[in-house]
């Protein structure tokens, strides 16, 4: 009765080579693979959401938060998910004007609720405008805004 391994692995004269191979796999490659996985996922929650985004979202909500506060916190937290992109501000400004026409004076209070400052939080402004354009079902003419570029 034998085991289904090649003779070169089982023979006694090759024990140092086999031991070195096991040491390399289990002592080097396996810890490196686990470490790469562990440190690569540290910035994500178990659902794959960026930890900073989740923290901003949940810290900005309380028991009395209404729909406007929830959407504002979504706009704030989204800025950590995407890398900083330089967008065509004229297309974004056009969409901003369409939302202003649709919502009227409420749009200004919503923007202040989301703490949007175009000079400081361009990603937050972009996310907030695109989020409200989606919620209001406004058509987005710009192909770069539709793609997310």
TrEMBL record:
Please provide one cellular component term from the Gene Ontology annotations of this protein.
Sec62/Sec63 complex
Record has Protease as a keyword: no
Write out the entry's keywords from A to Z. Answer: Membrane, Transmembrane, Transmembrane helix
Q: Where are the transmembrane segments?
A: 16-39
Query: A single Gene Ontology molecular function, please?
Result: protein transmembrane transporter activity
The superkingdom listed in its UniProt entry is Eukaryota
Q: Does the keyword Transmembrane helix apply?
A: yes
Swiss-Prot/TrEMBL GO biological process terms:
post-translational protein targeting to endoplasmic reticulum membrane; SRP-dependent cotranslational protein targeting to membrane
This chain belongs to which protein, by name?
Uncharacterized protein
